[in-house]
Amino acid sequence: MKFVRFSVEGEAAIRSGQLEEGIIHEWTGHLFGSRVTTGNQFPLEAVQLKAPLEPRHIIGIGKNFSPAGEEKQPIPEMPILFFKPLTTVIGPGDAIKLPSAAAQVKFESELAVIIGAEASHIKTSDVKDYIFGYTIGNDLGAFNYFHPEGHWTIGKAFDTFCPLGPYIETQFDYNSAHIQARVNGELLQDAGMDRIIMPVDQQIAYISSFMTLKPGDVILTGTPAGAQYVKDGDSITCSIEGLGHLHNPVILEEGS
User: Which is nearest to 162 in space by CA: 80, 53, 241, 70?
Assistant: First the structure.
């Protein structure tokens, strides 16, 4: 199933629906609970897609892919993890806003995993039972705001620095995911999950060992080599076969 959130021209309300063969079937209710179809249908090209969910938490992992051609690094005992605030989330087509003070901003195309059930101290072998679905994330970071002692919070936290979308796919084999990113049409990231250092199931099991994951939590699972700095006027398209394309323009924040 493909789940979306969307708006209709002339309306401020954000609706929810299920996407089937280019048609959105609207429903009301809760993404992780009961849903009732309204009977309303909308062609995909007639709506504006939004971020496919409002996350509860956003948890990212850093330095989790080995470049092609290099020996794969061992899984660390303590991975680099960080939070992104909910104010970073935007949807497909929304503008990534670069503050003037953030002089070195990189994009990062990633597989985003949506948790669908409460998970605490779970086994790696059971992780799939706690996953609701998958979408694409663009984990932007202002590298000149990464603290020299190690924390990344400020650099990862600017508004608009976490585009998500275009939809949540519940039927997807993340082990075969192939992650790409293009900037202004130029392919800059292109790698499969064979280059991941800490696999997705181990990431989620590890995180659940120190914090309880709940429905709506989003895990950004890492990005391949090739991410570069972006500037005003650039256009970023993050792609994962089976999950679609996430496109966002880059602009300088008004007043910067």
Answer: 53
Rounded distance, CA 123 to CA 11, Å?
45
Q: What are the distances in angstroms from CA 228 to CA 44, 45, 137, 236, 250? A: 31, 31, 16, 11, 13
> Strands 96-98, 244-252: parallel, antiparallel or unpaired by DSSP?
parallel
Helix (H) or strand (E) holding 201: helix 200-208
Q: What is the DSSP letter of 206?
A: H
**Positive or negative: CA dihedral 80, 143, 212, 132:** negative
pTM: 0.96
Q: For the residues of 73-96, what is the DSSP string, one character each?
A: PPPPSS-EEEE--GGGEE-TTPPE
Tens digit of each residue's pLDDT (9 = 90 or more) over 69-88: 889 899 999 999 999 999 99
If phi > 0 it is left, if psi is from -120 to 50 it is alpha, else beta; for residue 63 that is: left
d(CA 6, CA 2): 13
Residues in Cβ contact with 103 at an 8 Å cutoff, skipping those fewer than 6 apart: 142, 144
How many other β-carbons are positioned within 10 Å of the β-carbon of residue 15? Answer: 19
| Ramachandran angles phi, psi of 106, nearest 5° | -105, 145
**What DSSP state is assigned to residue 45?**
G
pLDDT, tens digit, for every residue of 142-201? Answer: 999 998 887 899 999 999 999 999 999 999 999 989 999 999 999 999 999 999 999 999
CA distance 169 to 114: 10
| CA atoms 141, 147, 151, 153: torsion sign | negative
Tokens of 105: 């901003």
